[in-house]
Amino acid sequence: MKALQVKLNSYQRKQFLQFFDDLMGLPSYSVQFSDQNFRKLLFFPVVNATQQTKNGPWHIKLAIAEPLMKNYYPFHFPTSFFSYGGTINLQVKLSIIRSFAQESSFKKTYLIRSFLNQYKKRSHSIQAQVKKDILDQFNNLLKSKIIEPKFQVSFNDNNFIPKDNIQLQDLHTAEVIIFYEIISPI
Questions:
Q1: Helix (H) or strand (E) holding 21
Q2: Which mean pLDDT values do the consecutive 10-residue runs of the chain (186 residues) have?
Q3: What global pTM score does this model have?
Q4: Looking at the structure, do residues 46 and 100 belong to the same domain, yes or no?
Q5: Reading across the β-sheet that carries 159-163, which strands appear in turn?
Q6: CA nearest 44: which of 71, 61, 23?
Q7: Residues 104, 66: one domain?
Q8: Quick one: 85 and 140 in the same domain?
Q9: 28 lies in which domain range?
Q10: pLDDT tens digit string along 7-44?
């Protein structure tokens, strides 16, 4: 177990707890269902944060799915994914991580319209910031050779248009973006 000593103000603490809440919201790693049993594995099934004294440090314990610890599937992301610059940046990164986690093949599906619908009642500047952040994250994945420069973009009715890269104007009307992970040996 690793211990970190970090002093956080109230806002930072709320951001930190929101981050762990978002981790717990990731889709299940594996679901097995039959007439006799049901089993569902989560990446982060338990996040426990306690403060033993009123102004004392917070102790956070994470339970992590065993397959993650044994590295059966080597998720790899650029270092830019290991930190975030605000709530929108975190939500964009987690939405992309979900796309990686939901499919076991190298072909990944990003439901961009579903994600962007969360922001449709927000200001135009916030919506623009979200789209720019999505584009930046896909460019980071391309630059780090995590994904191939090969996309299929659906704008309506499951008609997919092949593209070598994604442009900002694609994000305005795209429903689904399919991208391809580069699986590298460790």
A1: helix 10-24
A2: 59 73 63 55 63 72 59 67 87 90 84 93 94 96 93 87 92 93 70
A3: 0.62
A4: no
A5: 107-110, 176-181, 147-156, 159-163
A6: 23
A7: no
A8: yes
A9: 1-72
A10: 667 777 777 777 767 766 666 555 555 555 555 555 55
